[in-house]
Specification:
Blueprint lengths: L5 H4 L10 H4 L12 H8 L9 H5 L6 H9 L3 H9 L5 H7 L3 H4 L12 H15 L14 E5 L3 H12 L3 E5 L8 H4 L8 H14 L2 E3 L10 H7 L2 E4 L5 E2 L12 E3 H12 L16 E5 L3 H13 L3 E6 L25 H4 L3 E4 L1 E8 L5 E14 L2 E6 L5 E4 L2 E4 L3 E3 L5 H5 L22 E3 L2 H4 L4 H20 L10
Parallel strand pairs: 1-2, 1-4, 2-3, 4-16, 6-14, 7-8, 7-14, 8-9
Antiparallel strand pairs: 5-15, 10-11, 11-12, 11-13
């Protein structure tokens, strides 16, 4: 146990951020490091519960009380070993994960939970600074080969695990750089790409082969590729965006969120954007449809572009500040959250629905018509009902659709391999992560649907175990119980 009375002596600290006026001038990480003494006291709040519910809250099964205790005792090298025992990429989760583990923290029953995410990030950053993160190539080669299609967090986690087991692993990425959503979907101010690149360098040194501009199912025949490998793992994510087919959807200025975020990430690495394709919010009135993390990423990006105004719309009612009666501990708390981008400005409107996009001339959007909605019960289920007389227009020079994703793209690799899909369009798999096609496995959002980065890494590790067992008859690779 970190400190017997730690949770009584120390209050939960708040993640430090750079001042808004400073960070809006650049694209660097908005978070700053904790003071070491403060971080140690935060770790000391961990009670080492008899039943650590944080383990079940984390899909990876992270050994949270263990490394909290080690940080409190300043045994950092041991802490990173315990952290890496369950998580290949704690720098990703420590930066991007919404921390369901903290929602399950026992201290959260009647107090503020432990700052688990901050301690996790501090451990991995200390490990990189000290040079403790080194390549771990396999001792013995198995002679088996695996193709991993998709280089997001699920694919990268699986690839690293399988390579360390001794298999020849090749990761295929249809884009021009490795990383998937981590590369092009996450803004630089949320996670700088150097964080991704240093981990990719480790994996390359371990012997993982990366192939970019390799669109399996389009430029590369999926069945022919599968015939070249002993196993194939699909980790292409849920990349089909949810559209909003309303009057005026075809107008110029209406884009999917990922079009905007991807372009900005490309701009930051020096890619040339054709003039007719430029999406930039300078001096624009911006409306974001969707109140989740992707919408907040668009919000922060529009602030840095110099937008005149930014409004984020959410069809659901505003969540309560504290847990509602039907959302008890240790469930993930469905409460009102303020991201760093929200702190930077903009307006949030809840319980509103878009009716149409309004043409301002020359086929370009100038406004949205929106209406207030309320939730009512109808035929035994909750539905949205328009509030009469609440129609109104809001100015919009740019509109970004950030309403989530429907699942994997049904054509391409999914269609060519002929893997079975469920009623939601996700790839079907069994308990060993095998699809309906022998030798073809799946992990991450392709089979789960849109989810969290921590689930992607957890599923990548579990699928790697399934692939290893298929190839070798048994597997010693560790994996969470999913």
């Amino acid at each position: 146990m970190a400190k017997v009375t730690g949770f009584l002596e120390f209050a939960r600290g708040k993640q430090p951020y750079r001042p808004v006026a400073e960070r809006l001038k650049d694209w660097q990480q908005v978070m700053t490091e904790w003071e070491p003494a403060t971080l140690t006291s935060q770790a000391a709040r961990c009670m080492d519960c008899g039943i650590p519910f944080c383990h079940q809250g984390c899909p990876l099964g992270n050994l949270i009380p263990d490394w909290n205790d080690l940080v409190y005792r300043e045994r950092w090298h041991e802490a990173i070993d315990r952290l890496h025992a369950t998580n290949n990429f704690p720098e990703f989760t420590g930066t991007l994960c919404p921390a369901p583990c903290e929602g399950s923290c026992v201290l959260g029953i009647n107090n503020d939970p432990v700052t688990i995410k901050a301690v996790e990030l501090a451990i991995i950053e200390r490990a990189f600074e000290e040079g403790w993160i080194a390549p771990q190539p396999p001792v013995v080669e198995t002679g088996k080969s695996v193709a991993v299609i998709g280089s997001g967090p699920a694919g990268l986690a699986a690839a690293q695990q399988l390579r360390r087991a001794g298999h020849r692993v090749t990761v295929y990425e249809r884009d021009d750089r490795i990383g998937g959503l981590l590369r092009y979907g996450i803004p630089e101010f949320k996670m700088e790409k150097r964080v991704l690149d240093r981990r990719l360098a480790q994996m390359t040194a371990e012997g993982v082969e990366f192939r970019v501009k390799a669109n399996v199912g389009v430029d590369i025949d999926a069945k022919q590729l599968a015939a070249q490998y002993d196993a194939v793992l699909l980790t292409g994510g849920a990349t089909a965006p949810r559209d909003l087919p309303l009057p005026g959807r075809e107008l110029k200025g209406v884009y999917f969120a990922m079009q905007y975020l991807t372009q900005q990430n490309r701009r930051l690495v020096g890619d040339k954007i054709p003039a007719e394709q430029v999406i930039h919010a300078e001096d624009c009135h911006v409306v974001i449809i969707g109140g989740g993390d992707t919408g907040a990423d668009c919000l922060g990006t529009a602030h840095r572009h110099g937008a005149k105004s930014v409004t984020q719309l959410e069809i659901m009612p505003q969540p309560p500040v504290t847990r509602a009666a039907d959302n008890p501990w240790p469930e993930y708390p469905r409460i009102y959250r303020v991201a760093s981008a929200h702190e930077e400005g903009g307006e949030r409107l809840f319980a509103v629905s878009t009716k149409r996009f309004i043409d301002g001339g020359k086929g370009r959007v100038k406004a949205l018509e929106i209406i207030d909605v309320r939730m009512v019960q109808k035929d035994g289920r909750m539905v949205f009902e328009d509030v009469p007389g609440s129609e109104r227009e809001i100015r919009a020079d740019l509109v970004f659709l950030a309403m989530g994703f429907l699942g994997p793209e049904p054509d391409g690799v999914v269609g060519q391999l002929g893997v079975k899909l469920n009623e939601r369009g996700n790839v079907v798999r069994d308990k060993n992560w095998t699809t309906s096609v022998p030798g073809v496995f799946v992990a991450g959002d392709m089979q789960r649907g849109q989810s969290l980065i921590v689930w992607a890494i957890a599923e990548g590790r579990s699928a790697a175990q399934g692939v290893d067992a298929y190839l070798m008859g048994t597997s010693d690779l560790p994996a969470p119980l999913l």
